Amino acid sequence: MNALAATNRNFRHAARILGLDSKVEKSLLIPFREIKVECTIPRDDGTLVSYVGFRVQHDNARGPMKGGIRYHPEVDPDEVNALAQLMTWKSAVADIPYGGAKGGIGCNPGDLSKSELERLTRVFTQKIHDLIGVHTDVPAPDMGTNAQTMAWILDEYSKFHGHSPAVVTGKPIDLGGSLGREAATGRGVVFATEALLAEHGMSIKGLTFAVQGFGNVGSWAAKIIHERGGKVVAVSDITGAVKNPNGIDIPELIRHKESTGSLKNFQGADSMDANELLVHECDVLIPCALGGVLNRENAADVKAKFIIEAANHPTDPEADEILAKKGVVILPDIYANSGGVTVSYFEWVQSAYDLNSSNLVVKYLNFSRLANETIQQASEAKILLKFYSSGLETIGNRESDSQTSDNIQGFMWDEEQVNKTLQNYMTRAFHNIKSMCQTHDCNLRMGAFTLGVSRVARATLLRGWEA
């Protein structure tokens, strides 16, 4: 079963549990917009090559659509559609005022030079610039893209629409990015893991972990787990896999990969078959790479007691059933890897909102009124009310300083504030999921889906779109 079929299946299951009206269910399932564009660029040798780019905008009932752009050879419409839908539910589970979107280009970024990647990114932005925007659809990095990619998108978009730092998140700090954003998804995975383990009377310290995927998410998650006393006994990526029953020195492994580009020949661990990692002896398995890696072929052999889905859709439905019968607890992707989009939200509000005191007071008063009227259940008013309130305090402090100057790009949070706020969001979301599990007598995946779908459905009904 491909990712789109599996995602639709989970959504329909949640809709049945919630008793959604069929019109609402159909409205939430069909994407708002699907975009397919041709991107032709000259290679460095002068030859022309064409690629196909996609952007699926799934839903905007709760706010601007939000989702990454990935560069990977296997990018296709079904995958992008599924990931866009997951972003809708993920944003709602995190209770941030976004809908869902996703994009990508079918290419192998490793085969392209930096200048070729820049040309491809700029052409793609030219094709979609009228369909994205600060309050419409906000891209972010994903597989095969990074802060530099976002900088190119920001620059190209600004040629058409003026300086708009909040049109993308995950951008460089020097262009209005947020401290803590690079580590956010991996750090959020750790916060989610801690919340789950605490529910079982356990902590990270002393447990064994296997991490599949050692890119941005996997390396940060492994590093933080190592710092907190967890024992990472196996790590893999596309270059190979290593194991050490006594625990791998993760900082040393990161340095080794940075210097060699590979996990191979690392002196602090033994090599192993990458496929064996998923069934390696450990307490906690964290898949951080591609989807569908846990399936009917290997699910019965999984030895982990807990699976933390740091990747999108790493467990197919057949594996889900097998693992459930084995008593394995799975923390679903739409919660476990939501740290990235949550800190993207923090970056967005830092970039998007004017801290000119008179404008901020007007916004504060408007959102104070909205938060106490008919949309009291809408999270955007509540969250932005907190943001503007803290901004007023910031302005009050700044205006007492003789060196105060207006800052049209908002105020910058320090990294400690970003991480602490992320932990609060992740912990609260876990308890909300558990509450849905108890209400509907379901597992964590359906607890997360019913939580996300119910929030989007409420926003849809309030806006009257189901008619």
TrEMBL record:
The record marks D142 as: Important for catalysis. The active site is at K102. One of its GO terms (molecular function) is glutamate dehydrogenase (NAD+) activity. CDD domains: NAD_bind_1_Glu_DH (cd01076). Keywords: NAD, Nucleotide-binding, Oxidoreductase. One of its GO terms (biological process) is L-glutamate catabolic process. Pfam families: ELFV_dehydrog, ELFV_dehydrog_N. Residues 178-464 form the Glutamate/phenylalanine/leucine/valine/L-tryptophan dehydrogenase C-terminal domain. NAD(+) binds at T185, N216. GO terms for cellular component: mitochondrion. PROSITE patterns: GLFV_DEHYDROGENASE (PS00074). Substrate binds at K66, K90, S344. Belongs to the Glu/Leu/Phe/Val dehydrogenases family. This is Glutamate dehydrogenase. It comes from Salix brachista. The lineage of its organism: Eukaryota, Viridiplantae, Streptophyta, Embryophyta, Tracheophyta.
